[in-house]
Amino acid sequence: MEKHAILMTTGSLALSNEVKAEMQLDVDSRSLQFRLTTAFIRELILGMVDGNGTHSVVPLPGGGSYGMEAALASFVSRTDRPLVCVNGNCGEQILEIMRHRGIRARSLRTPCDRPISVNELGRCLEADPDISHVCLVHCESPTGVVNPINELVQLAKQHKVKTIVDAVNSFGALEISARRTPFDVLVTVSDKCIEAPPGISFVIASLDELESSVSDLGSLILDVRNHWRSIEKTGQWHSMPPTHVVQACKKALEVLAVEGINKRSIRYAAVSDEIVRATEKYAIPLLGPRVRSPTCVALTSHGTINSQREFDALYAHLTKYNLYIDPNLNIETCSYTIGCMGAVKPTSIYLLATAFRVFFQPVDAIRAPH
């Protein structure tokens, strides 16, 4: 019988027992009970972003990539000229989606260990008045760098440019308010800081955007407006929902509402600090605390972990302890990522410290002078 993996990744997460317990009940997706559950989820999320009266929450079956492609397909036409802010994998994926849809997108590129510059975005907007949208990521992967979305979105608003925000790695741990950050569209998921199972993406869009239209969408299933009209009219999802995941997500959002976003952020930051202390003899954080998300910590072990092959050895070693971190080395920074979200227990961090010591100490012994 397989043991429960000790998940210290940036997704999927170690879930609490009370959230997992909600997946035991079978329910009809068209029943009043399930429609009320969906309405409750939408209402909670909308309240968390201060979006009442200005925005609406559209749940979609699928992960963050699905939700982001649906948002881009629905709200960016092939004649638009979007600018994509790129300082990590999520920004690169937005660009790739644009290319596949035949959209001529510009990019503002920043090294993956630095936040997007507000001044640089301002220069881009001044230089190119044809820019129609700014697409940006709140918390990038794999470094965990946090971009200043308040300032970036407000700047775009000043230039009458629409904004699409990827908040997959931040919603639920970092405060986002549609009043202070007047985004047009924001995408998040169930399986990150909400701490529910994977399977749902949420497109939070302004009512102005939802009530407008894009003439050349070219997809029925990716049409966020179709999903929105269906759920507004009937309370039912436009596509088959993952019913068990939806019930678990409701419980996870209830838990988040009680804990509060600020306290969840503090909890994640405490886990991050403990991981840094547990591994400090063998690794150092890539980013300083001012630009580092509390949701994960990117570490470097220069001199020992300098290639994917060397990292693979560490990863394989950790799995012997049933520990799982993100499986890829960021080649640009030679860093690897450990997640701080979910039900990370002190015993898991202690086990991580032990595994690091066993892995790195033989290396230290070989290098020690005789």
Automatic annotation (TrEMBL):
Q: Would I find Transferase among this entry's keywords?
A: yes
Entry cofactors? pyridoxal 5'-phosphate
The membrane spanning regions, by residue number, are none
UniProt domain Aminotransferase class V: residue ranges: 41-282
**Keywords carried by this UniProt record:** Aminotransferase, Pyridoxal phosphate, Transferase
Q: What molecular function terms (GO) are annotated for this protein?
A: transaminase activity
Which named protein is this?
A: Aminotransferase class V-fold PLP-dependent enzyme
